[in-house]
């Protein structure tokens, strides 16, 4: 439901296309089999047994590197086909999983002009400021800051994956891949200074949105936009005061000679 199609990229997104893997993998398999020195291979690597056996056969009956390379074409094509199929299946699983996740998007700043324009009805809405309730086991304590980058997080580069498939390196470490995926956005969004709280809604009848209740003591302040109608202010103020907890109120003021919004305390 996000307006950014790059949100929630697959945690196992590879840094290359499958069609790009064939040539480098064939070249590396050929090199390891035909080189003079014994290659250092991981004992339980995916191709360790194959490479060692093929080296023995190559020493017993040397032939050209081109012949060795051609001999691997069928096996490499099979490997890539299997990987491509697994990748497609995982992508389907990830698409299904994404429907269960719910994200509460927060911001560290209450006075960004673009944020008010995009998410507060063109400055006619309001901003709620939350704080971790004292003594509460609050979901707010699970909030994590979003990181921003020009590049999508990838689980493996082409070089790393070829080294893994040829048993020269361990399988690329995907630890915290999920966290990196859902807490990373394009640097074009860094003005949002976003923080996120992730929850799940696995009910069979779950809708596209899930309401998140909050404890009254968590609501610390309310900021009204510089265009918020008085009727809206009255309604929100009355509802907030009925909670019976201390809440600060502010009104955003558009500065006369600067493109800035300044929160001005108001007495309600």
Q: What is the H/E string?
A: HHHEHEEEHHEEEHEE
Rounded mean pLDDT score: 92
Helix and strand composition category: alpha/beta
Number of helical segments with 4 or more residues: 7
Could you tell me how far the N terminus lies from the C terminus, measured between alpha carbons in angstroms? 36 Å
Taking Cα atoms only, what radius of gyration do you get, to the nearest Å? 28 Å
- Major β-sheet annotation: 4 strands, mixed
- The percent range for helix content is 25-40%
Strand order of the largest sheet: 2-7-8-9
Return residue spans where pLDDT drops below 50 for at least 5 consecutive residues. Answer: none
In total, the number of strands is: 9
Strand content: 15-25%
Overall number of domains? 1
Characterization of this structure:
The chain has 268 residues and is an alpha/beta fold. It has one domain (18-265). 35% of the residues lie in helices and 17% in strands. The strands form 3 sheets. Strands 2-7-8-9 form a 4-stranded mixed β-sheet, with no helix packed on it. Helix 1 packs across helix 2. The radius of gyration is 28 Å and the shape is elongated. It starts with 21 loop residues before the first helix and ends with a strand.
Topology:
Blueprint (H helix, E strand, L loop, with lengths): L21 H13 L13 H13 L4 H34 L2 E7 L5 H7 L6 E5 L13 E2 L1 E3 L8 H8 L11 H6 L1 E3 L7 E7 L18 E6 L5 H12 L6 E7 L6 E5 L3
Parallel strand pairs: 4-5, 7-8
Antiparallel strand pairs: 1-6, 2-7, 3-6, 8-9
Helix pairs in contact: 1-2, 1-3
């Amino acid at each position: 439901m996000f307006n950014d199609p790059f949100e929630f990229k697959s945690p196992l997104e590879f840094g290359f296309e499958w069609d790009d893997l064939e040539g480098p993998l064939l070249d590396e398999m050929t090199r390891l089999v035909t080189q003079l020195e014994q290659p250092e291979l991981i004992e339980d690597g995916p191709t360790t047994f194959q490479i060692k056996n093929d080296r023995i056969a190559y020493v017993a009956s040397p032939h050209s590197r081109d012949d060795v390379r051609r001999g691997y074409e069928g096996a490499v094509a099979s490997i890539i086909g299997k990987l491509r199929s697994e990748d497609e299946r995982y992508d389907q699983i990830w698409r299904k999983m994404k429907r269960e996740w719910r994200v509460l998007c927060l911001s560290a700043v209450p006075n960004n002009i673009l944020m008010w324009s995009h998410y507060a009805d063109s400055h006619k809405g309001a901003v709620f400021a939350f704080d971790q309730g004292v003594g509460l086991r609050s979901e707010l304590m699970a909030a994590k800051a979003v990181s921003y980058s020009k590049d999508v997080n990838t689980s493996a580069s082409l070089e790393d994956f070829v080294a893994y498939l040829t048993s020269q390196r361990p399988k690329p470490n995907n630890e915290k891949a999920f966290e990196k995926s859902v807490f990373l956005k394009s640097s074009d969004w860094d003005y949002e200074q976003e923080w996120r709280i992730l929850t799940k809604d696995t009910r069979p009848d779950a809708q596209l949105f899930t309401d998140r209740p909050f404890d009254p003591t968590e609501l610390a302040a309310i900021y009204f936009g510089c265009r918020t109608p008085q009727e809206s202010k009255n309604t929100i103020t009355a509802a907030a005061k009925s909670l019976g907890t201390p809440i600060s109120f502010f009104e955003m003021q558009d500065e006369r000679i600067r493109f800035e919004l300044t929160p001005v305390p108001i007495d309600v």
